[in-house]
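Treating backbone geometry as a discrete language has practical consequences that deserve illustration. In the encoding step, the backbone of a single protein was reduced to a row of integers, each denoting a local shape. The amino acid sequence and the backbone structure tokens for this protein are reproduced below.
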Amino acid sequence: MRKRIAALVAIVASVGAAHPALAADIPARAPVYKAPAAVVAYSWSGFYVGGNAGAAWQRSCWLFLDPPTDEGCHSGTDVVAGGQLGVNWQTGNFVFGLEASGNWANLKAGSVSTGFPTFTNETRTNAIGLFTGRAGVAWSNTLAYVKGGAALTNNEYTAFVTATPSPTSITDTRWGWTVGGGLEYGFAPNWSAAVEYNYIDTGAKDEGVSGIDVFDRITQRIHMATLRVNYRFAPWIWR
């Protein structure tokens, strides 16, 4: 009986001695790593609508036509506000688009005629419309772009005797061209904000008033800077 107990103790002791060696031979379990979340690229593609506000500076020059007499120039600065709608296509880092915008304006200025000092001339621009193409380069959610196309302005021209004001006014809508650019930042998947500058040139146009076929040739130049906010619908990737 004692021999059996001694043999059983010897077996248990040998198993206990062998266990640490076996454990040392078992490779350690590799740590579990979670895959990083997928990074979704910012897309500028899609239709968008937005609003804008800013300021504009206008310069108008008057030339009496018969006989040709320079009447001088005048400039005015005021606020502008309006909206825009457009569409972007993005391929790689390049973004192309089309846009239409309209702004209410109150650009009014006047001056005494240099050719006829008893008269005062005034120019007022009530609205500005732009129809442009856009092209830019994007770095994720930052877009730098240039734009250019057609411009449209609605204006009112007034001339009166300075000493006894009795204004005679005409209104017109005139076409021209525009060029500009901006920097836009996407602060949310569908929202972006931008600063933009546009130069607008509607050239020279002959204006008639009070039964006179032509009385002055008036030129118009406008500089406009705005802060814009856009909401973009259903972005897509165009490759």
In short: The chain has a mean pLDDT of 85.
